[in-house]
Design a protein that fits this description.
There is one protein chain. By secondary structure, this protein is mainly alpha-helical. Helices cover about 35% and strands about 5% of the residues. The chain is built from six helices and three strands. The chain has a three-stranded parallel β-sheet with strand order 1-2-3, covered by helices on one side. The longest helix has 12 residues, at about 15-25. It starts with 15 loop residues before the first helix and ends in a 10-residue tail after the last helix.
Length: about 140
């Protein structure tokens, strides 16, 4: 399931479209989808590393019917206001909290970029960043 995160201010200077979009970011909170999946007894993959939301990751780590999708990591690194925990290294932060067995390689998009509107410079090195961020046995204490 696609997730978002936004805790910033929805400014009066924003266009109606931008205001609506930022409100949708808030409503796509990973914890809301986790609770929905649990209530309905569904197997669900919560995408974008649950936006690094600690409570969501903790629940996913301990719930057999929940997984989380990994990426697009480069874009998530570039959009700090779309993560619950600001970080300089999304992959390292994710694997500091998530059990590797609960993380699926998924970009939710077929691309990965360093920022929006940089589609001409696609990145294909997510697997290298996962390997660097996930030392053997990492996050086993995250339970």
């Amino acid at each position: 399931m696609h997730t978002d995160w936004y805790t910033g201010k929805i400014g009066e200077d924003m266009s109606p479209h931008a205001k609506a979009l930022h409100e949708l970011y808030r409503k796509n909170n990973p914890l809301a989808y986790i609770r929905w999946a649990q209530q309905n007894r569904l197997k669900v993959c919560i995408n974008h590393g649950a936006r690094l939301h600690k409570e969501s990751i903790h629940i996913i780590n301990n719930e057999p019917d929940l997984m989380m999708g990994y990426g697009p990591d480069s874009l998530l690194d570039a959009e700090q206001d779309r993560l619950a925990i600001p970080t300089t290294d999304y992959a390292a932060s994710l694997f500091a909290h998530a059990l590797p067995s609960k993380v699926m390689f998924s970009t939710d998009y077929r691309w990965n970029a360093n920022g929006r509107n940089q589609w001409h410079d696609l990145r294909w090195d997510s697997i290298d960043r996962i390997r660097r961020a996930q030392p053997c046995g990492s996050a086993e204490s995250a339970r």
